Automatic annotation (TrEMBL):
<feature type="domain" description="FAD-dependent urate hydroxylase HpyO/Asp monooxygenase CreE-like FAD/NAD(P)-binding">
    <location>
        <begin position="13"/>
        <end position="172"/>
    </location>
</feature>
<dbReference type="InterPro" id="IPR038732">
    <property type="entry name" value="HpyO/CreE_NAD-binding"/>
</dbReference>
<dbReference type="InterPro" id="IPR052189">
    <property type="entry name" value="L-asp_N-monooxygenase_NS-form"/>
</dbReference>
<protein>
    <submittedName>
        <fullName>Adenylate cyclase</fullName>
    </submittedName>
</protein>
<feature type="region of interest" description="Disordered">
    <location>
        <begin position="549"/>
        <end position="569"/>
    </location>
</feature>
<dbReference type="InterPro" id="IPR036188">
    <property type="entry name" value="FAD/NAD-bd_sf"/>
</dbReference>
<dbReference type="Pfam" id="PF13454">
    <property type="entry name" value="NAD_binding_9"/>
</dbReference>
């Protein structure tokens, strides 16, 4: 029985009830008995979308859209590999819960159902002393003094919610158009064209893209894959055959998609085999020793100058450790000699390049991160048709490599990327990775399922998709009233269209976000990085103000913060960075509430409210 003095019930407002909010709730339930006991607590969940799946994973969306991960690689539950102060609460993967084959790529509605079940399980784990209130609306603003209760104003409520703590887990957000997008939209309006700015493809009205007409598409990542699916199968087309013999049978309702990007190629296929055998011991060259040394430096850190060399060496270590341990016949030095020389060499220097050239005879077995990032630099095609042939050959080779365990060093690099992300989080706002690093990570490690790229090849052969190439330039032609695009790989091959689609997600910047709450938070003094991320304390996810002080009553987790994790979901037994962040934040919140209640106990009853 509680002995706390009577007064307002302690409360937490969680803004965002999707996967991250659900994960925070799960960790709150796990640590609540230890840190808070059976005292009363109100938890308010604010989200206009269904709790659990939220907006992105809602069950009411096309089943043609898949997850980007295999079912066995998706879990919402902790295990002993996660660094936790709270208790481990294991649970099933998506594959186990849905009773589906582990290497299946589930639909997004299937994932949404799993997330709803995880949310309901988290609710059931809370004691009866905790009351959860769901508010299916949008939070507009948070206010209140640093040393007092906060107020959260809602779109559908006259009176704000009172909160001892506010936790922002708002997930992926839209954005107001940047100046370039506003100019393109104005041009489209003047000439009655179609311009679709960066957005979540599943939420975009694609009906304005007419059948048979050319459409320029900028962006070759996962947003494009969704666009491709919805404008082909989503309009009644179908596939026949399988593998290399896959054929697309059009419905006649498809537009013709002319797609290009900075790299000019799609994200690398998901790896189609398991990484068995010896794994690289990580971290090795970018771990706590290196991040501690970086944190001890005076002044700001530059990502490319100060951090990237360590990352380059770490990923190289993962790659060559796997190559030497699993495929020694493809190396020309003893591992002990290579390891010693590699460890002694400066990062990203001529010394490492010479060592690798001597130790690894086949260039295809060497790791070239710059080459991976710019696969078509300097490549020129004599015609648009030659470009189509060249890009189809590139995608075919990528599919073959990513499904061949003979190239398992690629999978070791994936493990290295996950390790690197964990160390970058320790650096917090000291280094602004900008948009490049997250895009590069996604390009290497978070590409589409292999079957999607086989569909892309079939669509290309059917003429429904046309490749523009790399370093695409889009211009507006006022005289002709069209958009025009050209690639550095085919300088004289201009493509004209009356529709332009920006196939990418909006950048998560505080200045341009369409979240009124985050915009107001920024205007009221929350700190942001140069690339627009909300700065949080890496130790407990409290929001930092512009004077550098963490706000004692405001937390934030997720992709709009400097604590953004590498992927949408966690693979089992991989350390679960996001789980650790949720755990630390939940325990900090509970400790704050407990300590506040203890202080109230020591006050006279007339003052404790």
């Amino acid at each position: 029985m509680s002995t706390r003095p009577k007064g307002p019930r302690p409360s937490i407002v969680v803004v965002g009830a999707g996967p991250r909010g659900t994960g925070f709730l799960e960790r709150l339930a796990a640590s609540l008995p230890e840190l808070y006991g059976d005292d009363p607590l109100d938890v308010h969940l604010v989200d206009p979308h269904p709790p659990g799946p939220g907006r992105i994973w809602r069950t009411e969306q096309s089943p043609l859209l898949w997850m980007n991960s295999q079912a066995e690689d998706v879990t919402m539950f902790t295990d002993e590999t996660v660094s936790l102060d709270g208790p481990v609460r294991p649970g099933p993967t998506l594959a186990d819960w849905a009773d589906i084959e582990g290497r299946t790529f589930p639909t997004r509605p299937q994932q949404g159902a799993y997330l709803r079940w995880v949310y309901e399980r988290a609710l059931a784990a809370l004691p009866a002393s905790v009351t959860v209130h769901e508010h299916r609306t949008t939070a507009l603003r948070v206010g209140g003094p640093r040393d007092g209760r906060q107020r959260v104003w809602l779109e559908a409520g006259a009176e704000p919610l009172l909160a001892d703590l506010v936790v922002l887990t708002v997930g992926h957000l839209g954005a107001e158009p940047a100046p370039e997008q506003r100019a393109l939209a104005d041009f489209a309006a003047r000439h009655r064209l179609v311009h679709l700015p960066p957005d979540f493809t599943a939420d975009t009205d694609l009906s304005a893209l007419p059948a048979g007409e050319p459409v320029l598409v900028r962006g070759f990542g996962l947003a494009f894959v969704d666009l491709m699916v919805l404008l082909t199968e989503g309009r009644g087309g179908r596939y026949e055959g399988e593998g290399d013999d896959l054929v697309y049978v059009p419905s006649g309702r498809e537009p013709v998609l002319h797609v290009g990007s900075r790299r000019g190629v799609p994200y690398h296929s998901k790896i189609g085999y398991a990484l068995d055998g010896e794994r690289p011991p990580l971290p090795r060259f970018f771990g706590t020793e290196q991040t501690d040394a970086l944190l001890d430096r005076d002044g700001p850190l530059d990502f490319r100058r100060d951090v990237w060399p360590f990352i380059d060496k770490e990923l190289g270590w993962a790659h060559y450790h796997r190559l030497f341990s699993t495929h020694p016949e493809r190396t020309a030095l003893a591992w002990s000699d290579f390891e010693q020389a590699y460890a002694a060499a400066p990062p990203r220097g001529a010394e490492i390049a010479a060592l690798v050239a001597a130790a690894v005879p086949d260039p295809a077995d060497r790791l070239d991160l710059d080459g991976l990032d710019h696969p078509l630099d300097g490549v020129r095609f004599g015609s648009a048709e030659a470009l189509q042939d060249g890009l189809r050959a590139y995608v075919t080779d990528d599919l073959s490599r990513r499904h061949d365990p003979a190239h398992s060093p690629d999978a070791a690099v994936f493990a290295g990327l996950l390790s690197v992300y964990g160390q970058l989080l320790r650096l917090g706002e000291r280094v602004d990775t900008g948009g490049w690093w997250h895009g590069f990570f996604s390009y290497l490690a978070s590409g589409p399922p292999g079957p999607r790229l086989r569909q892309l090849l079939a669509l290309s052969r059917a003429g429904v998709v046309r490749f523009l190439g790399p370093q695409v330039t889009v211009e507006t032609d006022e005289e002709r009233g069209v958009f025009r695009a050209v690639s550095a790989a085919a300088p004289g091959e201009w493509t004209e269209a009356r529709a332009l689609v920006e196939a990418r997600l909006p950048d998560p910047t505080l200045e341009l976000t369409d979240s009124p709450l985050l915009r107001a938070l920024y205007e009221d003094g929350a700190r942001a990085t140069a690339s627009g991320l909300l700065v949080v304390d890496p130790t407990d996810a409290r929001i930092l103000e512009r004077d550098g002080r963490p706000h004692p009553r405001r937390f934030a987790l997720g992709p709009h913060t400097t604590a953004r994790a590498g992927g949408a979901f966690t693979r089992p037994r991989t350390g679960g960075i996001a789980f650790g962040q949720n755990d630390v934040a939940a325990r900090a919140a509970l400790s704050f509430l407990r300590d506040r209640a203890d202080r109230s106990c020591r006050l006279p009853a007339s003052l404790s409210a």
